[in-house]
Amino acid sequence: MDAGQITSDALKYPARNFSKILILGVLTVLSSLLIPGFLVLGYFYKIVKFSLAGSSELPDFNEWTSMFVDGLKVFVVLFLYSLVPTVLVLLGVWAALLPMLTVPDAGSLLDPTLALQLVSGIALIGVLLQIVVSFVIPIALANMVYKDELKAAFRFGEIYNIIRRIGGVDYLIWYIIMLIIVWVVYFISSFLIFPFLIGIIIVPIIIMPYLTIFFARSVALLFNSQESGHEYYRHSKQVK
Q1: Alpha helix (H) residue ranges in the chain
Q2: Cα–Cα distance measured from residue 81 to residue 160, given in angstroms and rounded to the nearest whole number
Q3: Residues 6+ away with beta carbon under 8 Å from 147
């Protein structure tokens, strides 16, 4: 299955059960309460698990404790992967802003050397590292679900081999397609939210959960596109 087929399948997948999009949407709206946020991530985990096992149906919203624990694992992976890049960017920005906070007059803020400091080496390294991290995270999450253990998300040798089996070019094409879709969705969402009050409802209840389900399905199909296949997983793991 190539990137085009994966994208086509993943785009159709959420529409198979609209009520589950709405349930996930409600949880998304309530994510600020923390626990629903972990449940959203837990459902992401569950979609990947079901899709890896060959299911073409959206999983049910049940086993809430397990969903919460799985969501917590997804959060830990995302947090740890993003920690170092985020710290580097913040340090770079702080180092660039510090001279501005100590200058004697506002006119010196126009000094071009201060403007150049905004793109400090530390912050730039952080940005580049975040790009690399975002490239690795999808397979890291899928490998965690596939192996059913948190530490599998940090086995970089395994992750590299998975990407190699998928095909570096194929993986890059998939990654670019995902970026384009996310950018388009956020662009449309920004126009829906600000001019139209109804957009404040549509975006978090329909569009964002649809994107979450789409991405989870896409990640699982990509993982299963390895040349070696995963028949053992599909036949040995039970999904409920």
Answers
A1: 3-12, 18-29, 35-52, 64-102, 112-117, 121-147, 156-166, 168-193, 199-202, 208-223, 231-236
A2: 15
A3: none
Whether residue 52 contacts residue 222, with contact meaning beta carbons closer than 8 Å, is answered with no
Q: What is the DSSP code string of 141-188?
A: HHHHHHHTSGGGGG-HHHHHHHHHHH-HHHHHHHHHHHHHHHHHHHHH
CA separation for the pair 81, 17 (Å, rounded)? 32
For the chain, the structural domain boundaries read 3-236
Q: Are the CB atoms for 24 and 213 separated by under 8 Å?
A: yes
* 8-state DSSP, 15: G
pLDDT of residue 235: 42
Distance CA 11, CA 5 (A): 10
**CB < 8 Å & 24+ apart, contacts of 83-87:** 84/126, 84/129, 85/126, 85/127, 85/129, 85/130, 85/133, 86/126, 86/130, 87/126
Asked if residues 95 and 120 have their Cβ atoms less than 8 Å apart, the reply is yes
User: pLDDT (tens digit, 9 = 90+) per residue, 58-77?
Assistant: 999 999 999 999 999 999 99
Please report the pLDDT score of residue 123 as a whole number: 78
**Which residues neighbour 211 within 8 Å (Cβ) at sequence distance 6 or greater?**
181, 182, 185
Nearest C-alpha neighbor of 121 from the set 166, 167, 88: 88
Provide the whole-model pTM: 0.84
- Answer yes or no: are the C-beta atoms of 3 and 174 closer than 8 Å: yes
